[in-house]
């Protein structure tokens, strides 16, 4: 059924970069045989899944949205993918994304843009736009995305679904094609928080292949069904005063209306609500756009046409590098590698990179202070709803960067954050609510998000 739906709908939406129907049906048949023999099937037995194309899938092309990796077939699975398959999930295909995760609309894919199922003249958000579009249109019941500065939460918000950026290290990054290693996370995207909790339980945990991964994992989906879980009287919510933050003028009313409505829902659920502010919003954005490109410039050095990446014909080695990288990578990726190399170069390191790290440390400290006062922080996920295709392309790249103003602060602090649908704007486009939790506070985020959705 899902393959049929992809066949019919993906012509319009372009959420997938590749679909392997034969492999999916074969895996389903294997599960069927296991079932007939009375063997144990995992908790996700025969549940189809779409995988963002920067997660390695053994034997299936993995491009990270780049022409550079157009023909790359990994010899191993990402740990997150392997865990889902071990639980019985069946991969339908790989989803479209901004090249190497750099972008907020999936228009910066090296292949084609993806279209928003709510209005195909608009973007899905990014960089996990293909995953968001696939779930939102019912082409997959759930998907994996990656989030470095907002790439799960912002497309979830634009497509009217739920998405979780886990605490840094909660889900193994092994097999994720690296963008910015100190910020990258892998997480689930689905229609409801209850589904996210079930999937997260399978994804989370220590992986010897990723030294930054954590061991503890809670029985997340059980928490939601505990007696009294839906009464939030023991929960203190910090509501971000968004009047003072950088939202776009014309959108403020819709975002504000939905945000105030959702706070009313939480008050009805008996949560205590206090007003807080998130200072350093502008500085966070600036620090991110120094740190992420710096790490990217180092991570992407391996794609040189020799060690990794498609190789162009050339008569000597530097021409080979130039041609392979020149033709293989898009303009935004080049911009970030140049910015990052500059920020790390001697003479500029202190002025840019080290300063950005100091700002990051201030933001971490500020969140620590806030979480001494409240349990969960609430703010909109994005300053606006899905924009028109092409609207922010060309010209000033900062227009696109500003999309991330509300999702970047928790990323810099390594905190978990959930985006759930909170309402619609005047054009009937979905808007997302962001719930930011304390380090390893996914259980409480699920409980609060689930209570809201119930
Ligand atoms: N949009 C942000 C960027 O372009 C975040 C992307 C991401 O989280 N992968 O860097």
Automatic annotation (TrEMBL):
It comes from the Eukaryota. Signal peptide: none annotated. One of its GO terms (molecular function) is ATP binding. GO terms for biological process: glutaminyl-tRNAGln biosynthesis via transamidation; mitochondrial translation. Its main location: mitochondrion. Its EC number is 6.3.5.7. It is found in: Mitochondrion. Belongs to the amidase family. GatA subfamily. Subunit of the heterotrimeric GatCAB amidotransferase (AdT) complex, composed of A, B and C subunits. Allows the formation of correctly charged Gln-tRNA(Gln) through the transamidation of misacylated Glu-tRNA(Gln) in the mitochondria. The reaction takes place in the presence of glutamine and ATP through an activated gamma-phospho-Glu-tRNA(Gln). This is Glutamyl-tRNA(Gln) amidotransferase subunit A, mitochondrial. It comes from Galdieria yellowstonensis. The chain holds residues 78 to 531 of 556 of the full protein.
């Amino acid at each position: 059924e899902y393959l049929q739906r992809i066949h019919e709908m993906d012509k319009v939406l372009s959420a997938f970069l590749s679909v392997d129907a034969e492999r999916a049906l074969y895996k389903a048949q294997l599960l069927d045989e296991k079932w007939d023999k009375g063997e144990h099937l995992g908790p996700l037995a025969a549940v189809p899944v779409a995988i963002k194309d920067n997660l390695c899938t053994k034997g299936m092309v993995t491009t990270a949205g780049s022409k550079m990796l157009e023909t790359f077939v990994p010899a191993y699975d990402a740990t997150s993918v392997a865990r889902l398959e071990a639980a019985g999930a069946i991969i339908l295909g790989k989803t479209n994304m901004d090249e190497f995760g750099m972008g907020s609309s999936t228009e910066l894919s090296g292949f084609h843009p993806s279209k928003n199922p709510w209005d195909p003249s608009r973007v899905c958000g990014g960089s996990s736009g293909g995953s968001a579009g696939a779930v939102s249109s019912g082409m997959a019941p759930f998907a994996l995305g990656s989030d470095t500065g907002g790439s799960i939460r912002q497309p979830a918000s634009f497509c009217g679904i739920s998405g979780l950026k886990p605490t840094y290290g909660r889900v193994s990054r092994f097999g994720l094609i690296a963008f910015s290693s100190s910020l990258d996370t892998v997480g689930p995207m689905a229609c409801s928080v209850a589904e996210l909790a079930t999937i997260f339980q399978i994804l989370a945990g220590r992986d010897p292949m990723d030294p930054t991964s954590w061991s503890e994992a809670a029985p997340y989906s059980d928490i939601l069904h505990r007696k009294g879980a839906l009464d939030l009287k023991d929960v203190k919510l910090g509501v971000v005063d968004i009047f003072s933050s950088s939202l776009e003028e014309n959108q403020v009313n819709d975002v504000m209306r939905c945000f105030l409505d959702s706070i009313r829902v939480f008050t009805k659920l008996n949560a205590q609500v206090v007003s807080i502010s998130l200072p350093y919003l502008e500085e966070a954005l600036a620090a991110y756009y120094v740190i992420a490109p710096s790490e990217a410039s180092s991570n992407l050095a391996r794609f040189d046409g020799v060690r990794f990446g498609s190789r162009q014909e050339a008569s000597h080695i530097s021409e080979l590098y130039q041609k392979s990288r020149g033709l293989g990578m898009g303009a935004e990726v080049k911009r970030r590698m140049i910015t990052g190399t500059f920020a790390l170069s001697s003479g500029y390191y202190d002025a840019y990179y080290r300063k950005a790290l100091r700002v990051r440390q201030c933001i971490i400290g500020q969140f620590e202070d806030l979480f001494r006062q409240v349990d969960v922080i609430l703010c909109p996920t994005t300053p606006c709803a899905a924009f028109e295709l092409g609207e922010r392309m060309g010209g000033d790249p900062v227009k696109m960067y500003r999309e991330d103003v509300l999702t970047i602060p928790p990323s810099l602090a390594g905190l978990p954050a959930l985006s759930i649908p909170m309402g619609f704007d005047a054009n009937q486009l979905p808007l997302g609510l962001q719930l930011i939790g304390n380090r390893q506070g996914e259980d409480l985020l699920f409980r609060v998000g689930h209570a809201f959705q119930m």
